[in-house]
Amino acid sequence: MNVLLDEVPVPVEQFSRAPRYLSIALTNACELRCAYCYAPKHAAALDRERVVAWAVELDAAGCLGVGFGGGEPTAYRRFAQLCSDIAQSTSMAVTFTTHGHRLTPELVESLRGAVHFVRLSVDGVAATYERLRGQPFAAVVQAAGLLGSLAPFGINAVINADTVGELDDLAEFADEVGASELLLLPEQPTAATPGISDADAQRLVEWAAAARNGVRLAISRTGLEATLPTVEAVPGERPLDAHMHVDATGVLRPHAYAPTGLSVGGSIMKAVQALREAR
Questions:
Q1: What values do phi and psi take at 18, rounded to 5?
Q2: What is the DSSP letter of 187?
Q3: Residue 217 forms beta bridges with which residues?
Q4: Which residues, listed in sequence order, are joined to residue 219 by a DSSP beta bridge?
Q5: Are residues 46 and 82 located together in one domain of the fold?
Q6: Are both 32 and 46 inside the same structural domain?
Q7: What confidence tens digit (pLDDT) does each residue in 25-56 have?
Q8: How far apart are alpha carbons 5 and 87 in whole angstroms?
Q9: How far apart are CA 261 and CA 155, in angstroms?
Q10: What angle do helix axes 48-60 and 268-278 make, rounded to 10 degrees?
Q11: Taking the mean position of all CA atoms in its chain, how far away is CA 246?
Q12: To the nearest 10°, the Cα dihedral for 76, 194, 201, 176?
């Protein structure tokens, strides 16, 4: 049976208590030093048993998926075991975002059956990628090949002054390696970078508006609110119903870029409710 999301109105009080999706920064550790990365640089990592307990609680409250990031999630101790534990103890989708340089055939095999989607970060192609990330581009091509044997995967790309001129190349790369989606992320302001400029944001919007075939395109609207038309994924959804984020110190935030949040105590759902009330 197919039902449009707005075909059968559902009272707000019957919405799931949990956000549809929770992103979790397992660790701040990452061997790359990308100047535009917004992730905190101080050492921090979450306790694995605590993360599993959160997942079980979220699942019971109607959450559909958790996505692991960082830092670099594959640098997290016993990462594959964590994914397996959550896949076996909940009905949620398990995803993660990775730079790909720690992927090995052995790690991919240990993740098989425990993850449902992976995002591979590729900021620019060829020489641009190597200049920005300090790693060989050939290695990320190899990582894409490994992921293709594991699960559906997408390509993430931060768009800034260095990469906005390579949008066609990024789309071609994503299509060539068999990615199911190309997600474009406008650069966010950090201590070291100002974020995407208005001119580059406009170039991104105009490029996205042009007709093209190939890989499915998605764009984060954060930073593009004034220039990018958007639609509601779920009609009537409240601001914090779609997504929340937990950082590597256990602070729940509205999203990964948010400067403040609430520390998660013994219950992730109590923290979710408290954050909604605080907003």
A1: -85, 155
A2: P
A3: 182
A4: 184
A5: yes
A6: yes
A7: 999 999 999 999 988 889 999 999 999 999 99
A8: 26
A9: 29
A10: 70
A11: 12
A12: -30
46 assigned to some structural domain: yes
Domain count, the chain: 2
Report d(CA 27, CA 21) in Å as an integer.
19
Below-70 pLDDT ranges, the chain: 1-16, 211, 223-233, 235-236
* 77 shares a domain with 172: no
Same domain, 163 and 82: no
Residues 125 and 109 in one domain: no
CA of residue 105 relative to chain centroid, distance: 23
Beta bridge partner(s), residue 118: 96, 153
Does residue 58 lie in a domain region? yes
The CA distance from 185 to 154, in Å, is 13
Please give the Cα distance from 148 to 118 (Å, whole number). 10
* 204 and 167 within one domain: yes
Q: Do 111 and 83 touch, CB atoms closer than 8 A? A: yes
Q: Quote the pTM value.
A: 0.92
Domain assignment of residue 6, yes or no: no
Beta pairing partners, 182: 155, 217
Backbone angles phi, psi at 272, to 5 degrees: -60, -50
* Three-class SS state of 224: coil
Confidence (pLDDT) at 146 = 98
Range of the domain at 72: 19-115+239-279
* Residues 122/158/33/74 CA torsion (nearest 10 deg): -50
